[in-house]
Amino acid sequence: MKRTLNAISLAVAITAGMAGAATAQDFPTRTVENVFPWAPGAAMAASQIIAQAMSEELGVSMPVISTPGAAGTKALQTGLSKPADGYTVIDGYVAPLVLMPVLGKADWTYQDFKPLWGAVSNAFSIVGRKDETRWDDFEGMMAWGRENPGELRYSTGSRNNLPHMVIAKVLQSYDVVAQNIPYPSDPDSHKDLYAGVLDFAFHGPADYRQNKEKANVLLVLSELADAKETYDGAPTIAEMDIDLGLSGLAPMGWTWWVVHPDTPADRVKVLADAMGRALERPEVKEQIANMGFNVLAYPPEDYDSIVGPVVDQLGAMGDALLWEEERLRSLN
Fold first, then answer.
1. d(CA 113, CA 90)
2. Domains, the chain, with CATH or none
3. Residue 112 class from Cβ within 10 Å (0-12 exposed, 13-18 middle, 19+ buried)?
4. How far is CA 86 from CA 25, 97, 112, 164, 324, in A?
5. With bands split at pLDDT 50, 70 and 90, how would you rate the model's confidence at 25?
6. Are strands 152-155 and 178-180 parallel, antiparallel or unpaired?
7. For residue range 277-331, what is the model confidence (pLDDT) as tens digits?
8. How far is the C-alpha of 318 from the C-alpha of 87, rounded, in Å?
9. What is the rounded distance in angstroms from the CA atom of residue 199 to the CA atom of residue 179?
10. Taking 80 as the threshold, does the pLDDT of residue 15 lie above it?
């Protein structure tokens, strides 16, 4: 009798193991969607490159679905509303994934998702004009700004966005008070920069490429070597003598693909393994680099250690916005 029970237990264990293996092997059998938080553009094109390579690894199609709205949070809400079956991947850009929760505008944190891989980054830069005569470099502009409080005029397009937060933190580190001038779009602010209305402005890689003949990249807001290459060797925050309180992924745009927290672990592993292989493809790296983006390829196990520090730094950047406003009021 005891021998019979042991045999039955062994058979049950083997059957359960085979069922688990079959579940992993049978997934996916249909389309896996990537829910993307912005309108079509360069960032979406970068995600499409990864999704295409990942679909080839998985053997099913993987469309990238543009779901803009509410500073990106609509996409994450949409992804969370889908069944937790692994057939929905959320393109977790820093704004909806980390920044909106920090600002109290989303009821989740980055820890409420299961990570796949860090996908790409979009390095920001501070750009002036090549024909500027008052200073030659970023340090020179900061010296001028300290001597002329409130006289520097700059733009990050809209106010209180991530680029504004990053630049305000940089200016606070130098004790330089400057005026952030809002514009309806980045191209509008760039037009005024090169017309001499503004002293400097935020540029992303695509903005820089469109204005190379006129743009003087004063500072690349990233420590990544690939970001320096994107801006043709311009100085980066890694080379500054002063501690700006900015490190890792905090001072730039980036995305980390994630899934619903209740997604079965075996399916998360299938997706993560496929994404890891996709990001290692030379053609994927080359195509994304040609767009001015940088492949991150951070594995799932690094999620907490890399994304966690961004939360604290975003809080400090929010304080820098308040500092900027208070100092400007004190000058009036």
1. 9
2. 29-121+252-298 (3.40.190.150), 125-249+315-331 (3.40.190.10)
3. middle
4. 13, 19, 15, 36, 44
5. low
6. parallel
7. 999 999 999 999 999 999 999 999 999 999 999 999 999 999 999 999 999 999 9
8. 36
9. 10
10. no
Packing angle of the helix pair 162-173, 303-331 (nearest 10 deg):
70
Distance in angstroms (rounded) separating the CA atoms of residues 234 and 209: 13
Residue with tokens 């490190």: 247
Alpha helix stretches (DSSP H) within the chain: 2-26, 42-58, 73-81, 94, 100-102, 138-147, 162-173, 186-194, 205-210, 225-230, 265-280, 282-290, 303-331
Contacts of 290 (CB under 8 A, 6+ apart): none
Phi/psi at 285 (5° precision): -60, -45
Separation between Cα atoms, residue 217 and residue 126, nearest integer Å: 6
Element housing 118 (H / E) = strand 114-122
Task: Please give the pLDDT value at position 332.
Answer: 83
H or E element in which residue 258 lies? strand 253-259
- Residue 159 is classified by DSSP as T
Whether 205 and 230 have beta carbons less than 8 Å apart is answered as yes
Residue 209 identity (one-letter amino acid) = R
